[in-house]
Amino acid sequence: xxxxGIDLGGTNIAAGVVDESGRLLAQAxxxxxxxxxxxxxxxxxxxxxxxxxxxxxxxxxDARLVGVGVPGYVDQRTGVIAFCTNLGxxxxxxxxxxxxxxxxxxLADNDANVAGFAESVAGVSRGTRSNxxxxxxxxxxxxxxxxxxxxxxxxxxxxxxGHMIYDHGGILCxxxxxxxxxxxxxxxxxxxxxxxxxxxxxxxxxxxxxPERINGKTVIDAxxxxxxxxxxxxxEYTTHLxxxxxxxxxxxxxxxxVLGGGVSRAGDxxxxxxxEKVAENRFYKTLPFGEIALATLxxxxxxxxxxxxxxx
Amino acid sequence: xxxxGIDLGGTNIAAGVVDESGRLLAQAxxxxxxxxxxxxxxxxxxxxxxxxxxxxxxxxxDARLVGVGVPGYVDQRTGVIAFCTNLGxxxxxxxxxxxxxxxxxxLADNDANVAGFAESVAGVSRGTRSNxxxxxxxxxxxxxxxxxxxxxxxxxxxxxxGHMIYDHGGILCxxxxxxxxxxxxxxxxxxxxxxxxxxxxxxxxxxxxxPERINGKTVIDAxxxxxxxxxxxxxEYTTHLxxxxxxxxxxxxxxxxVLGGGVSRAGDxxxxxxxEKVAENRFYKTLPFGEIALATLxxxxxxxxxxxxxxx
Lengths: 312, 312
What we know:
The structure is a homodimer. By secondary structure, the first copy, chain A, is α/β, with parallel strands linked by helices. The first copy, chain A, has helices at 38-55, 94-99, 111-122, 182-185, 187-200, 216-224, 228-251, 268-281, 301-307; strands spanning 2-8, 12-18, 24-31, 63-70, 73-75, 80-84, 89-92, 106-110, 131-136, 140-146, 149-150, 256-260, 291-294. The relative contact order of chain A is 0.15. Chains A and B meet through strand 10 and helix 7 of A and strand 10 and helix 7 of B.
């Protein structure tokens, strides 16, 4: 039997049909238009799912469930989205609404958990018993897999790895705390480091750019090209990311640490310095430690992981 | 059937006989005299175990195993102590040596894991499925329990909660990194904060003490008495401890966080400000979070947890 995964994003809804092994058979997309009443967004999620099922040459009766990845916090028991900051949602009865349109069990979880689980079922961390997934995007999302299952914690809030206190009293985070890891390891942080380096090296390529156009990608491109400001900012970034991974190793010691999200598209250019810095700085210098790897499923992770939530 | 637990400390060896429910039936102690060859220390561990068994009116044949808590890193497969800094041991074949003296299965684990597991089986966190144990002593040790078992990680090094990077670039740690949590949350850290506050408030009771006599306990006593320097140092300490617990909640979200070790003897005087600061500073302000509690087994935790290692 197949299952249906829906990735609810701030910009787009993507739905797909996934087979038992985690392979994506067909998909469909629609814009989220998040300012609409939630009932209309959820109706479009159902339409999107229907379209994907039809494209796969199947019907809803061929599916065992619908899973949804949500950029927010879902109460797993009730299927209610408690918070979803991007969409401005609070206490939205996702399961109840979605079941008005399709007669299937509905499961839902946080989008980082869903993507991390997808990698663990059908991506780079497949076959590991434990792994930690980090999305390096606007913020830093996380998912911890223990004994092949998502570790959601006792109250469903585990895996907020972007909000480890990493630099006590440091940069103010959107969450209200200071020094959260995501202020040092997100794409947003990389862009900030790029702007700071641009000011320090005004003659560099980054220094000559309009500061408003500096983002994670421009910093990585500048670093690859050997630009002084780019190299300096990227070195600062990989140092922070590596120290955060050291904390994850010292606390959780997973079999693998998977890097996903925008910054991870830098590939080995990111992976190599991070690996070296982790190897140098971990606590048990002579013992083996978890592999550090790049996510392989890209944007499809959200659909695949959601479709597999009954095994999570 | 009973089992035998041995707590191998830098100063003393303590052995005890423990029943199936985790109750300590009898115990015996000897000085470690750590400078001796390891074979003699391990011989004394066996003698200590024998004495405890005799005091319980039993023999080795009544025991199902011997468990050992070690202040270092043990390879669980081989029973070899890879490092044990306090004792100056490296690659000591603990299981093999101990089995020369007693014909029982030998299990061993890190002392913080053993104590945390003891609380989980027979102490304050009994009945929880997940909990995190922190020992606030010379350093900060940790143990993470997930689904009622010690989570040792993929390479046996999980739970080094004292070495979370908490203040990037901050105080140099004995491990070589900067800003490790134990530099801010150990009894050693509390003493340092006390000495700093004593300098700042020379007219206070702490300020008038010989700085060399300031330790965790004197700072707590001064804080309880309302001494300006003591109150200031203890407030700084509880703030750091609370922020570290926030990281643990954001990452692991355990059902309970258990505080043990020397500083935890301050009781509610420690617990109340820490609880308030955690409640105020956690990420999900409106959701429930793990209980914070004091360890209840004290020094016996090392014996009890070691004796239960076959269930860990």
